[in-house]
Amino acid sequence: MAFDYEYSPSRDRGSCSTIIVGKDASATGYVLVAHNEDDYDCVIQVHKVPRIRHKPGETIRFADAKGVIPQVEETYAYQWSDFRCEGGISFADCFVNEWGVAVVSNACRPSRIGEEKPEDMGIGYGLRRLVAERARSAREAVEIAGALIEEFGYTSGRSYQFCDKNEAWVFQIPTGRRYVAKRIPDDHVYMIPNNYTIHEVDFADAEHKNCYFSKDLVEYAMKNGWYQPAVPGDYSDFDFARAYQDGPDKVHNLIRARQTWPMLLGERPEEWRPFSRKAPRKYTVAELRRLLSSHFEGTEDDYNNGYERNPHIDRDPCPLCNAMTAESSVIEFAEEPAMTCIWRAAPKPCISPYVPWYLGAKRAPKGYQWLPVTVSQDTHFAPGEEELHIDVSKAFWAFRVLQYFTEFDYKGTHETIRKSADELEAAWDAEQPAFREKCRSLLKEAPELAEELLSAYTEAQAQKAWDWAWKMVEQLGEERILKNSSTRYLPPENV
Question: Were 121 and a residue from 73, 155, 241, 304 both cysteine, which residue would form a disulfide, CB within 3.0 to 4.6 Å?
Answer without folding.
Answer: 155
